[in-house]
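1st attempt posting a full record on here, be nice pls
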Amino acid sequence: MVCGITTNHCCETTARVGGNLGYRVLFALDATHTFDRQGPDGTVLTADQLAQATATNLHGEFATVVTVDQLLAAPPGTSSN
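the predicted structure (as tokens):
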């Protein structure tokens, strides 16, 4: 399970590497945090927009994006898709 700071940097990278190495990665999106960022053209993306982009990038390819509630409700060793 991946959680931590920052969603779109360290957490996303960890999930991608884990997925590429063949691990079953659960990405607890609501257990990550990120910050607003300004792009090279001056456009600012909010933390929520960046987190949603990360979820979209990862889900179904590198990881299964879940919530903490889904993880807590799932019996040990099962996925909460």
